[in-house]
Design goal:
- Strand 11 and strand 12 form a beta hairpin.
- The two termini are 20 Å apart.
- This protein has a 10-stranded mixed β-sheet, sandwiched between helices. It has a two-stranded antiparallel sheet with strand order 6-7. A two-stranded parallel sheet has the order 13-14.
- It folds into 2 domains: 212 residues, Isopropylmalate Dehydrogenase (3-Layer(aba) Sandwich), CATH 3.40.718; 138 residues, Isopropylmalate Dehydrogenase, CATH 3.40.718.10.
- The chain is built from 12 helices and 14 strands.
- 41% of the residues lie in helices and 20% in strands.
- The structure holds 3-isopropylmalic acid and magnesium ion.
- The site of 3-isopropylmalic acid has 6 residues, from helix 4.
Length: 362
């Protein structure tokens, strides 16, 4: 198969981790006789520096024309003082909206090799951590009006959180469908004791439940969910939630699996053209040092093969290769805690080891 992948390296550690994912993709291509071509697109701080805009239309167009998009990370202190609507992160919000990728899938699964790196007690980890957060990605407070104005003689700000029934329904369906393919438990997370958007959310989820009788639906308030994720993560199979709650809970969920550096994500909408990115940020403090963990990005590339290119065997190969390299004791700095005899590994070495393991697997 021939596929075109738009590549957004972005800022900070973005270029380093994306290069490792491409290294692995190239081995997959060779092994299975595929051909991947890569089109570079600029987004984030580097695009601000180059064009004065975090995502010029020309760059978005490259992403829309590709079969999928692989993204590193954007942002950094260098652009902290630019106005809100021109920040690097605005590029990220614009590409998500521009591609219409409303459904963001963030797995929280513990690799047994990394159990010691989890900050949770062993008896909690032993019960298993294997759930998915389905996060609504192009609505809610991230996309409502943002303004700052003078009121009663002082500076006042406002961010609007808004959801329509249809926006809730389409992500709700992804939640039910995802649960249906797993352990058939869906937890809808909201703040319906305070917010109107959450009350609407809850009512739509319950209406949809009638169409998915095989899936067990439960409701949970977001504050309680934050607590339950550390108290008893084994209870969760699929969590479906709105944009900002999903942002916050997915960082928490990643940490209990050992490191945010391990977690990939897929973002999909109505077409197979998806956006694939690790859930961590650009880590400017370690940029350029070859010490970042490329595994979140490499696993994002695996998700691209699985969900956008219909290449499940190829995706399995990458995931198995990651497991093998971890089993051999190789660790980047973020995941080295807790074990004896582990080998501190550079970003580029980690990518090469995983690529080599893909090449050598059956
Ligand atoms: C994420 C990030 C982004 C978000 C930021 C960088 C805008 O935290 O993908 O989780 O909040 O969505
Ligand atoms: Mg986040």
């Amino acid at each position: 198969m021939n596929k075109t992948i738009a590549v957004i390296r972005g800022d900070g550690i973005g270029p380093e981790i994306v290069n490792e994912a491409i290294k692995v993709l190239e081995v997959v291509a060779k092994k299975y006789g595929h051909s991947f071509s890569y089109v570079d697109a600029d987004m984030g701080g580097c695009a601000i520096d180059k064009y004065g805009d975090p995502l010029p239309q020309s760059e978005l167009d490259k992403c829309l024309a590709a079969d999928s998009v692989l993204l590193g990370a954007v942002g950094g202190p260098k652009w902290d003082s630019v106005p809100g609507n021109m920040r690097p992160e605005k590029g990220l919000l614009r590409i998500r909206a521009g591609m219409g990728v409303y459904s963001n899938n963030r797995p929280a699964k513990i690799w047994p090799q990394l159990a010691a790196a989890s900050p949770l007690k062993p008896e909690i980890v032993e019960k298993g951590i294997d759930f998915i957060i389905v996060r609504e990605l192009i609505g809610g407070i991230y996309f409502g009006d943002h303004k700052t104005f003078d009121e009663n003689g002082e500076k006042t700000s406002e961010d609007v959180m808004k959801y329509s029934e249809s926006e809730i329904e389409r992500i709700g369906r992804i939640g039910f469908e995802t649960a249906r393919k797993r352990r058939k438990k869906l937890c809808s997370v909201e703040k319906s004791n305070v917010l109107d958007t959450s009350r609407l959310w809850k009512s739509v989820m319950h209406r949809l439940a009638g169409e998915y009788p095989d899936v067990e639906l439960s409701d949970m308030l977001v504050d309680n969910c934050a607590m339950q994720i550390v108290k008893n993560p084994a209870q969760f199979d699929v969590i479906v939630t709105e944009n900002m709650f999903g942002d916050i809970l997915s960082d928490e969920a990643s940490m209990i699996t050992g490191s945010i550096g391990m977690i990939p994500s897929s973002s999909l909408g109505a077409t197979s053209n998806g956006l694939y990115e690790p859930i961590h940020g650009s880590a400017p403090d370690i940029a350029g040092q070859d010490t970042a963990n490329p595994i979140g990005t490499i696993l994002s590339a695996a998700m691209m093969l699985r969900f956008s290119f219909d290449m499940p065997k190829e995706a399995d190969d990458i995931e198995e290769a990651v497991g093998k390299v971890l089993s051999e004791g190789y660790r980047t700095g973020d995941i080295i805690g807790g074990g004896e005899g582990l080998k501190l590994t550079k970003c580029s070495e980690m990518g090469s080891l995983i690529a080599e393991a893909v090449k050598n697997s059956r």
